[in-house]
Amino acid sequence: MRDNNQFNFDTTKIIDKFEFSLKTAHPHAQALMPEDFYWSPIEETAPFGSDDGFDAAYGFREWRHTNKSLSPIIYLKELIEGWQYPYFDWNEMDTTRIKEYIVSRANIDEASIQQQMEQLKNVMKNSADSSFHNIDETLLRQTVISSSQEMGGSFLLGQDNAIIGTGFAQFALEGKIDNDLKALTITAINRQLLPVLINRYDEDYQNKRKQQLTKMLGVINNANSE
Questions:
Q1: Nearest CA-CA partner of 167 in 102, 223, 111
Q2: Which one of 25, 99, 122, 225 is least enclosed by Cβ atoms within 10 Å?
Q3: What residues form DSSP beta bridges with 225?
Q4: Residue 134 has pLDDT above 70, yes or no
Q5: Can you tell me the distance from the alpha carbon of 143 to that of 83, in angstroms, rounded to the nearest whole number?
Q6: Per the domain annotation, does 133 fall within a domain?
């Protein structure tokens, strides 16, 4: 399961002083990203709107202060390794292999099970519904383990969001994207446009997501690189 403590940036001090926005962006990014949705911190498909994309983008900004000459791919690898997501080839576009990853189970150890059980107990103790106060330990354990089943879709989405968030962060900050990060960002967006992933969303959101991802793909394709 994801463990943010293994790769923890103190992004709060930066978030207090800085926000990815049209106003703070490099002129090259301003020219290609004029719409509000690109900068939204809450729009799910937007570069900085998902939790993983947001964390990756602001974490990249902090990391970049002391790693100006290093490849952003180093940052991404360390970040996602710290999240402990199961390995996935970031260049993978084969639908069969993507499906296999989606239905994979999370590697959850006994310590994680116990931690999640305690968290659930605390929530239930504070619940107004008294029937939750004395829930059976065995049932609680089964609930935790079941929640870890078929988490591959979330892990894949999280990794793609982190790649996209980092790619757009570099472009917004520097007006360019390193070639290797640009290629990964294009692949991540194209992967999220595949029917096998688009169809995981409610029908009324699928078209909106397609439109937004397509716009984002156009931005990255036209972004300066080196």
A1: 223
A2: 122
A3: 177
A4: no
A5: 22
A6: yes
Quickly count: other Cβ atoms within 10 Å of residue 157's Cβ: 20
Token pair of 142 as six digits: 């089964």
Whether residue 97 is contained in a domain is answered as no
Contact between 156 and 162 (Cβ < 8 Å)? no
Whole-number Å distance between alpha carbons of 216 and 161: 12
Q: CA angle, 83 as apex, 80 and 87 as ends, to 5°? A: 55
Cα distances from 30 to residues 27, 129, 173, 214, in angstroms, run: 5, 51, 11, 18
40-81 residue pLDDT tens: 999 999 999 999 999 999 999 999 999 999 999 999 999 999
Same domain, 21 and 118: no
The answer to whether position 155 is within a domain reads: no
**Domain co-membership, 16 together with 79:** yes
Residue pointed to by tokens 């716009």: 215
In a domain, 18, yes or no: yes
Per-residue burial over 26-42, b = 16 or more CB atoms within 10 Å of its CB, e = otherwise: bebbeebbeeebbbbee
Structure tokens at 158: 């999280």
Same domain, 83 and 172: yes
DSSP string, 9-20: --THHHHHH---
pTM: 0.77
173 and 215 share one domain: yes
Domain that holds residue 135: 109-147
